[in-house]
Amino acid sequence: MTKNILIAVAFLTGLGLIFIGARFLISPEAAEMSYGIHFNEQDDYSFHYIKGIRDLFSGLLIGVFVLSKQTKALAVTLLLGTIIPTVDMLIVLNKDYTGIIQAIPHIVAIIVCFLSGIILLKSKKRPVNDFSGLTKIIQSADENKESIIEFNILPGEKTPWHYHTLFSETFEVLKGTLEVGRNNQIHQLRKNDLIIIEPNEKHYFHNTSNDECLIKVTVSPGNKNFEHSILILNGLAKDKLTNTSGTPKKLSDLALFIYLNNSQMIGFQKMIEPLFTYIAKRAIKNGNLKKLELQYCKK
Fold first, then answer.
1. pLDDT digit string, tens, across residues 113-134
2. Using CA atoms, how far apart are residues 228 and 100, in angstroms rounded to an integer?
3. 169 has which bridge partners?
4. Burial class of residue 143, CB neighbours in 10 A (0-12, 13-18, 19+)
5. For this UniProt entry, which segments traverse the membrane (predicted)?
6. 213-220 and 168-175: which strand pairing?
7. What is the rounded end-to-end Cα distance, in angstroms, of the chain?
8. Residue 266 belongs to some domain of the structure
């Protein structure tokens, strides 16, 4: 939780730097007053433009590291970047007409950058790819009206918002905890809790804990492709072919999983759904699905 808060603070800091940098470029005199000094530029705003570009670049760099989840790079940047507000503070305090009040924004920036950098640098990444769970077909659609599957969800593993058109899903937590979003509500499920997702209901699940979660999913009516999608994903995870969120690293594997799973995308992702369908059908035609089924779906 602390790590997420610090990352959010860093992102806001980046946005603030972008604003300050843009202000020095667009309205240099007003930005100068906020900085805490007076500069007799005589229509020469070179200093302002230099500072504006510096802050704009710094803010964009922080934003890129946050959005790309490069926590270590973000931490080092914040820690080393402490030198910037430190020098700014010394410049402000060196003026005869300024005092501690004018230096407060720079002091706050020093504290935020230094503490955030130190804490983020010491934060440990969760070992989310140490696969030790299972996937078990309890009841198959071959002989029954429902598919019932038990499988584990790794720490940090999550799905995007999506929905299914061919079946309903009932999630029952057998071990651990699971966050499930359904329509506009977020549910925190614990052992023995269950939730029903009807066809066309948008939903997601996310294991936000540090422990694996074991769930039982009942698909009604049963769907053989859904069963295969879970078995294939399980096999890919065992072979370290998924990322920390449980998503297949190979694009064709991801497309096949979405296609077999009858997952319909939500929002802007809907725009790329035809592309994934095309990739999946091409993978089926090329025999890639058959290979995955032979490798991971054998009884």
1. 898 888 888 876 555 445 555 7
2. 66
3. 197, 219
4. exposed
5. 5-26, 46-67, 74-93, 99-121
6. antiparallel
7. 41
8. yes
Given this model, what pLDDT does residue 25 score?
87
Same structural domain, 65 and 167? no
- Looking at residue 122, what is its pLDDT? 81
Element (H, E) at 264: strand 264-265
> Is 129 contained in some domain?
no
Do residue 50 and residue 82 come from a single domain? yes
Can you give the C-alpha Rg of the chain in angstroms? 26
Structure token pair of residue 253: 């594997």
Q: Which stretches in the chain have pLDDT values below 70?
A: 1-4, 36-42, 124-133, 245, 299
Is residue 160 in a domain?
yes
Classify 64 as helix, strand or coil: helix
Q: Is 146 left (phi over 0), alpha (psi -120 to 50) or beta?
A: beta
pTM of the full predicted structure? 0.58
> How many C-beta neighbours within 10 Å does residue 224 have?
14
Which residue matches tokens 């070179």? 46
The structural domain count of the chain equals: 2
H or E element that contains 252: helix 251-260
Residue by residue, DSSP assigns 182-217 as ETTEEEEE-TT-EEEE-TT--EEEE--SSS-EEEEE
Neighbours of 234 (CB within 10 A): 22
Residue type, 130: D
Q: How many residues does the chain have?
A: 299
The two counts, helices (H) then strands (E), for the chain are: 10, 10
Residue 143, domain extent: 135-296
